[in-house]
Each structure stands twice: as C-alpha cells, then as structure tokens.
C-alpha cells in the first residue's frame, strides 16, 4: 500500500520548504524557548494540513531536478520574506527597550535570555509585551491564515519572484528605528529634561555629587514613567501590530504580482 505518491512527495517538499522558512522567523516559534521536536511536529502538521485542504498537486514528469531545486530556493525565500516582515516589529520593540535601558542606566545590568541571547532587562520586557499583544490581539491568526492563502496566490510550480519585494524589505527595515524611537519617546523626553536639571544643579551647586544622586534617580524616574505610560505603551504596541499586519499583507501582494 502506497501512503504517498511521488507527485505528493514533491509537492510536500515544496510546501514544507515555505512553511519551515516562515516559522524559522515567526515570533516565539523561532526562539529556543520551544523544543525542536515540537517545532518539527508543528511544521509537518501544517504542511500536511496545507496539502489536504488546498489540493496542491505537482507532476513529477513535468519537473526536472534543476527546476525542482530552483523551486525549493524560491519557496524558502518566500517564507523568509514573510517572516522577516514580522520580525521588523520584534526588532523595533527590542530596540526601544535598549534605548530606554540605556537612558535609565540599566545597560550595565544585562541578562542572558535563552531566546534572545544577551539582552537588557527592559529589552526583554518590551519583547514579551510584543508577544502578549501579538497573541491577545489575534494577529497571529491573520498571518498564519495568509500563509495558507499564499499557496493559492503564489503557485508552487511558478519559479519567478517579483523583484519589487527586495526594495520593499529594505524600506520597511528602516522603520525599526522610527518605530522604536516613537515607542521610547516619553522616556527620552522625561529623562532628557531630568539630565538637563542635573546639569544645572551641578553648575549652580558644584559641591553636590550629581553622579551619585543622578544614577539612582534616573532608574526610579524611568520606572515611574514606565508605570504611568503602560496604557500608552499598550495602545502604541497595538497600533504597531496593526501596521505589521498591513506590511505583511502588502508584501504578500507584491510577491503575487
């Protein structure tokens, strides 16, 4: 009894390539928090689900070895492109945490996170805030659903790729700094004013050790601003996630042209 035909094996390999490339850059799943055997099971399950529900068929006698390898590379590129668009927002949240941590003087207190490596405390907090908003808002459903939809609008047997995706990825990668600055702006403003006040105190009363007073005060002021701006951070984060979904769907449209 043949469980899988050669045609289905070829189609499954192509589907598997796109899905594994996508999940290798997908939030949380790409981190080391989830065991590798769970990741493999998840990818294989999605691949078989796609095969059964979208009736994907590829004829072996119509594809040569070189063509098959080119299609594999194309599928990997599509998956990575879609996943990288999602990672723009993760990087923006992480960089915003790095900016705030630097202004508060917390860069000397880094921690080793198995998911992200050596990061500052606030960078990890901002990244986990992104994960919370990402899954609570249901945005992951749109992204995964669009991945399945991509098998209809981006056929497996089509070897060409719209080159417009390259400048689009480069353009949106620059938004990492803009979005992270927008998120960290309240902290930048308050701590900048505080440092100006410290500079004036040091100028007017040189007997006071400003560094001894300023560093602990910066940390406390930073946490106070974080406490009072938490609602603002959530609203800004949700706005950024909506923007991420828009970027993702636009990138999918560019690939399908």
UniProtKB/TrEMBL annotation:
Keywords: Bacterial flagellum, Cell membrane, Cell projection, Cilium, Flagellum, Membrane, Transmembrane, Transmembrane helix. InterPro entries: FliR, T3SS_IM_R. Belongs to the FliR/MopE/SpaR family. It comes from the Bacteria. It is a multi-pass membrane protein. It comes from Sulfurihydrogenibium azorense (strain DSM 15241 / OCM 825 / Az-Fu1). The chain crosses the membrane at residues 9-30, 36-54, 66-86, 92-112, 124-148, 176-201, 208-234. Its main location: membrane. The keyword Transmembrane applies. Pfam families: Bac_export_1. GO terms for cellular component: bacterial-type flagellum basal body; plasma membrane. This is Flagellar biosynthetic protein FliR. GO terms for biological process: bacterial-type flagellum assembly; protein targeting. Role in flagellar biosynthesis. The gene is fliR. The keyword Transmembrane helix applies. It is found in: Cell membrane; Bacterial flagellum basal body.
């Amino acid at each position: 009894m043949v469980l899988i035909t050669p045609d289905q094996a070829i189609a499954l390999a192509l589907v598997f390539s796109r899905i594994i490339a996508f999940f290798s850059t997908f939030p949380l799943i790409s981190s080391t928090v989830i065991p590798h055997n769970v990741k493999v099971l998840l990818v294989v399950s999605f691949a078989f689900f796609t095969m059964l529900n979208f009736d994907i068929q590829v004829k072996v006698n119509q594809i040569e070895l070189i063509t098959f390898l080119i299609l594999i590379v194309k599928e990997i590129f599509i998956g990575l492109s879609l996943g990288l668009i999602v990672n723009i927002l993760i990087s923006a949240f992480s960089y915003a945490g790095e900016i705030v941590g630097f202004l508060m003087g917390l860069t000397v207190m880094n921690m080793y996170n198995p998911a992200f490596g050596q990061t500052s405390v606030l960078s990890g907090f901002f990244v986990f805030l992104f994960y919370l908003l990402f899954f609570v808002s249901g945005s992951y459903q749109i992204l995964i659903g669009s991945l399945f939809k991509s098998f209809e609008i981006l056929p497996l047997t089509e070897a060409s790729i719209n080159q417009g995706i390259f400048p689009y990825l480069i353009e949106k990668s620059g938004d990492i700094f803009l979005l992270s600055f927008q998120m960290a702006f309240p902290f930048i403003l308050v701590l900048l004013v505080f440092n100006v006040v410290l500079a004036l105190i040091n100028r007017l009363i040189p007997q006071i050790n400003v560094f001894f007073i300023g560093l602990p005060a910066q940390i406390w002021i930073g946490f106070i601003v974080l406490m009072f701006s938490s609602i603002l951070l959530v609203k800004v984060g949700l706005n950024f996630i909506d923007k991420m979904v828009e970027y993702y769907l636009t990138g999918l449209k560019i690939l399908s042209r």
